[in-house]
Structure formats: structure tokens, C-alpha cells
DNA sequence: CCCAACATGTAGCTAATGCTACATTTTGGC
DNA sequence: GCCAAAATGTAGCATTAGCTACATGTTGGG
């Protein structure tokens, strides 16, 4: 019988952990894109247009930073824009926006449900949202549905 | 009376949202540092040493990437190392490791408590952990404590 | 209708985080 | 004790994401 108490051999454990970190790296890379798409959708809905300056102000970055990122969104088929004309979302961009906005709402609602104050829930959700899998999101939704409502 | 239904003026809402995104950006910048420190602490505990190659394998990156990041940890007073001798944590590094490891455990335990499968909980926690405020972490701990235990 | 304010865009810098290619150092098996 | 494999390190490249400085385009108030 084996003297070592390991359930999985060390090499396999390393591979698993590497895969987890790779997954987190990938999510981190997509986080900014998701925030831009979400903000553009919000602006288009509330103002009818999404100007680079407004996007930059919402994010708290210089307008040049926003312009450069918007160029990447265009390159990746998520947005389009004519010079001096504001930014619009492609079909793919709109699909991402719907998904990202719903997830954002769910994460905020969930944090509030477990007793986090609204302002703090908004802050934490802005980061957490990008790392929540479908399975975890479902667990959040299940929990919200089963919890007693505030309004009662 | 005001025809507009806004509770907060638009400018103020923009400032709030910008602050939330700034907070998330700041957390994102620290995430990699936290993972390195956590992994180094794990290796020191299990193997008695933390070699750059082992750190790189755990993260799933090239060893040169790890070496460059370790240089940053040293620059920032979190680690020290002699050439060809492996990496060690300073007092500050050890303090960060304790905090980060405890938080990681809490996030995983919390996700499992709400019904996320263990493997998925580990994956999601690897990202989520870096964006959880003290207040949210407390809410997680409260919930874990109040939930029925598996082992019963 | 013009011009000043504002929005937009370009150029170029820095830092972080990844990579590959290559060089050097250490170390363990024979 | 040698030497080949493994570990470590250096150099240099790319991309992302931030910045400032400056240039150009648009537009509305007087
Ligand atoms: Mn976000
Ligand atoms: Mn969001
Ligand atoms: Mn992590
Ligand atoms: Mn972790």
C-alpha cells in the first residue's frame, strides 16, 4: 500500500492548478471588453448615442485610452463607428451586451441578498462579474429566487 | 417640482461609476501579485523551497514570465532570492500570503455552500477572490457559518 | 456666420504580462 | 569527477492599457 497520502499525483495537481489560472487569465483579458460593451449599450439606450468622451468619463480614463480600446472593439467585430460620429454595437456586440448586463444585475442582486450594502455590492460586482461561470451564475439566481424579498 | 425623475444628477452618477471601475482596475492590477505570493507560500510549505520553474508550472506560463514577475515582487518588497537559489517571502509577503490564502479558502467554501461543484468553485474562486471586499468576505463567512454542514 | 469651446483623433511614452531563442549555471547519475 | 540534463537567467519582441501633448474637426451662441 501507498505510504503517500496524495489522492492525485503532484504532476496532475499542477496541471489542474495551471488550467485554473489559465482560465482566470483568459477571463481577465476579456473583462475590459465586457465593461466597454456594457457601457456603450447603456449610453445608447439612455442617450441614443455613445460618444468616446462619455465612455471615457464613465470609466474614469483619458479619452485617448477609450478611443484606442474602441478601435480594438471594432477590430474584433463588436462595434463600428464613423469618424466623429459615435460608437455603435454590431450584432455580436449587442449579444454580448445583453449577456453582460444580465449577469451584472444578477451579481449585484445576489450580493445584496446575502447582506452586502448596495454601494459595496456595486463596487465588488464590477470586478466579480467577469469571473462568474454559468454554473455559479445559476447558483446565484437560485439563491435569489429562494430568499425572502425585501419588498414584503 | 422637478420633471426629471433622476435621484442623482447625471454628472454624479458618472463619477460614482468611474470610481467603481477605478476600484476594479486597481484590484485587477494586484491580482497576479496575489496569485504569485499564494503559490510561493504553498510551495515553501509543501516542498521547503519555491523554484521559478515550479511557480511557472503551477501558473501555466513560461519560466521567463515567472522570473520577470518575481523580479517585480522583489522590487516591491514582497520577496527576495539569491541567484539560482529559489524564492522566499519577506514579512510583507508572508502577511499577504496569509490574507490571500484565507480569502481563497473562504471564497471556495462559500461557492460550494451555495451548490457550485467543487471543481467549478475552484476555477471561479481563482478569479473572484481578487475582487471581494472585506464586507463581502464577511457576508460569505456569515453565510457559511449559518448553513447546514455537509458532514452531518 | 464665425469663432471658441468641445469633441475627436494622432503620436509617442511607460509599464505589465505574455512569448521565443539563446546563454549560462547547477547538479545528479554513472 | 564528468557531463548531460535541468534549472536559471538574458535579450528582445508583441500586445494591452494607461498617460500627456498636440493637432484637427464640429457645432452652437451671440
Ligand atoms: Mn465590470
Ligand atoms: Mn458591469
Ligand atoms: Mn487567483
Ligand atoms: Mn488563489
Automatic annotation (TrEMBL), chains A, B:
Top-level taxonomic group: Bacteria
Which key words are in the record? Activator, Cytoplasm, DNA-binding, Manganese, Repressor, Transcription, Transcription regulation
Q: Which GO terms describe its cellular component?
A: cytoplasm
| Gene Ontology terms for molecular function | DNA binding; DNA-binding transcription factor activity; protein dimerization activity; transition metal ion binding
Q: Which Pfam families match?
A: Fe_dep_repr_C (PF02742), Fe_dep_repress (PF01325)
Q: Does the keyword DNA-binding apply?
A: yes
Q: What is its main location?
A: cytoplasm
**Residue ranges of every copy of the HTH dtxR-type domain listed in the record:** 33-90
InterPro entries for this protein: DtxR_MntR_Metal-Reg (IPR050536), Fe_dep_repressor (IPR001367), Fe_dep_repressor_sf (IPR036421), HTH_DTXR (IPR022687), Iron_dep_repressor (IPR022689), WH-like_DNA-bd_sf (IPR036388), WH_DNA-bd_sf (IPR036390)
Q: Where in the cell is it found?
A: Cytoplasm
Against NCBIfam families, the record matches this protein to: PRK11050.1 (NF008273)
- Family of the protein in this entry: Belongs to the DtxR/MntR family.
Q: How does it assemble?
A: Homodimer.
Briefly, what is this protein's role? In the presence of manganese, represses expression of mntH and mntS. Up-regulates expression of mntP.
The name this protein carries in UniProt is Transcriptional regulator MntR
